[in-house]
Write a structure and sequence with these properties.
By secondary structure, the protein is mostly beta strands. The chain has two helices and 23 strands. It has one domain.
Length: 365
């Protein structure tokens, strides 16, 4: 269902909208920095939409013991600040996703453009994407994607979503920035009460909150971190732009037991990345980076992107998961002030059956 709200209702909408993702919002409560459920992630959106995504692609590991589905939701908007909840298809658990924007007439690289403020999995059911104009009137559309995961037991049957959820958890960390500027929120899986040594990072994302009376803050990064063969958690990066704005940036990490109960197999997670200078693909303020991948060898669970900068700054505009020979399409742009500095890096997090740890060999049907 789509709701169109007047300005006085925008904040209350977003409080309800993202509270469904186990997030209590700033503007609804005091902002603090702490682990666990963040207490401040507020950004009002005048148009929101929720639906179950339509599958457009699948990924699996070499042994076909883990499968992920990429599902796409409809465009929502045009609006000054659209948001969407994209629900995972039945039988899967939401671990990742993405979001893209376009102008009200369908232009992908519009001027002055819109930037991302939320791109995170609301474990276990849906993915949240949100964007906003910044200082300029720019009605635009938004579309969210969700990545869902399922794994096989030793008999070749898929664990139910409820069984898999019981072996997973989400943890978040919020950083409040009282005076504006750039900020980061970092969350380790090990900070979760449910954490056990050896647990796997299988998803993540970031959200940026701000008060309705301020210019607002924007994402410029959302990425896994740690050892590429055993990532430790997730980082979210944000900044204000031109006008100082306080707010809260939140990082989310989804964890899973390495050897889930009922599977009789063990799994591993890993991430890859690729970067390119913003100047090398600069076009009308926009730059892009593509991360290649093989959907028949690696089960993609989450994507990320970071736009480096050294001048006025560059912001994320598109974080699109794909199921062809590309895993992630990441785009960023400058805004009002020319800045083609820094690298734009794309990340892809994948899960595979672990041949060295599984009680039942990965290759056994």
């Amino acid at each position: 269902m789509v709701h169109t709200l007047n300005a006085s209702a925008k904040l209350s909408l977003h409080c309800a909208f993202v509270a469904a993702a186990a997030v209590t919002l700033g503007g609804c409560s005091a902002a603090t920095e702490r682990n666990g459920t963040p207490e401040a992630v507020a950004h009002p959106h005048s148009l929101s939409h929720s639906q179950v995504g339509e599958p457009i692609g699948y990924y699996h590991d070499f042994f076909y013991r883990v499968e992920t589905v990429l599902a796409q939701c409809d465009w929502v908007g045009p609006s000054d600040m659209p948001a969407e909840q994209c629900y995972v298809p039945e039988g899967y658990v939401a671990v990742g996703g993405g979001v893209e924007v376009q102008g009200e007439n369908g232009e992908m690289l519009g001027t002055p453009g819109a930037m991302l403020v939320s791109s995170f999995p609301a474990f276990p059911n849906f993915f949240v994407g949100a964007s906003k104009e910044h200082l300029d009137w720019y009605p635009h559309k938004l579309r969210a994607y969700v990545i869902g995961m399922r794994i096989q037991d030793s008999s070749g049957n898929w664990l139910s979503a409820a069984q898999l959820r019981s072996q997973m958890y989400v943890v978040s960390h919020a950083t409040f920035v009282p005076d504006g500027g750039a900020a980061a929120a970092l969350v380790n899986l090990s900070s979760a009460p449910e954490y056990q040594p050896g647990d796997l990072l299988v998803g993540g994302g970031a959200a940026q909150g701000f008060d309705i009376s301020d210019a607002g803050r924007l994402l410029y990064g959302s990425q896994p971190f740690g050892d590429t063969s055993h990532p430790a958690g997730w980082i979210g990066w944000s900044k204000d732009h031109e006008i100082a704005s306080p707010g809260t940036v939140v990082a989310f990490a989804v964890g899973m037991r390495a050897c889930p109960a009922g599977a009789n197999r063990c799994f591993s997670s890993q991430y890859t990345s690729v970067g390119a200078s913003a100047a090398s693909t600069y076009d009308n303020g926009y730059s892009y980076t593509l991360l290649g991948g093989d959907a028949s060898l690696f089960a993609l669970t989450s994507i990320g992107g970071v736009s480096g900068w050294s001048g006025a700054g560059r912001l994320l505009t598109h974080m699109i998961p794909r199921a062809d020979d590309v895993f992630a399409e990441i785009r960023s742009k400058d805004h009002h002030f020319f800045d083609n500095s820094g690298n734009l890096t794309a990340y892809g997090l994948t899960v595979t059956c672990d041949t060295g740890q599984s009680p039942t060999p990965c290759f056994v049907p």
